[in-house]
Design goal:
286 residues, alpha/beta
Length: 286
Amino acid sequence: MALGTPSVSLRAEIAPPPAGLVRPVISKTLKIGMVKEGKTLAEKFALAKEAGFDGIELNAPGFSVAEVLAAKAETGFVVDGSVCAGHWEVRHSDPDASVRAKALETLLAALQTTHEVGGHSVLLVVGHGKDGTEEDVWSRSVANIREAIPLAAKLGVGIAVENVWNHFCYDHAGGADQSAEKFVRYIDEFDSPWVGMQFDIGNHWKYGPTGDWIRQLGKRVIKLDIKGFSRAEDKFTPIHEGDIDYADVKRALGEIGFCGWCAAEVTGGGLTELREVVAGMDQALG
């Protein structure tokens, strides 16, 4: 039986933003692993909510749907999406077809369980450059991930490709003048509104101007991750530290009409530390 396609996608055509729009509209989320206190899922949800977050990302598959739904009902908190489990180790670009089959199985399960708890995206690392040439990694991962698009469309859950230090679509030994051109072509290869970018603001500041990458990616950006990075010290930092040009990031997000979720991906902790993360997000993108 053919799978149906919802009438609304995560990556619909974006009209030019209204004149004068200079700030993106952002909801704040975080990775579940950042919540270091709370014995139950409901306690963790309540803590993140009290800290000022609007939602949370889980790791999928691997959680109890019933437990998540109960925690949502108890706290009134939102699960906006998930991170695909094991995507660094079991890769869509692996030379072994059986490993690629397992990666697809995991992605399909992640899409299904994310949908069941009300999430709308699954973050995905598509592969690694160590699996072969760029052409190998490109062709294998595209072919494998493409098999999941019908389910993503049926469920209304987007596959959100993250730009990471995986030696793919950029030169890992290169300088800070690289562009997002390869990422643009890679996402467009799927020719689907259900595959986009969960663009990590900090991950490639080392390799190129973040605002310009956002402008190049445009409507392909369906979600954001955020962490800090210092080019001067060549290391990741708390969100509001480092030397990322957040003023230009905000301009770029406004220019592409971004309206959606931004996920913190930094060291978390208890209530005090999580409130500091929220403050850092507000300081960077507020």
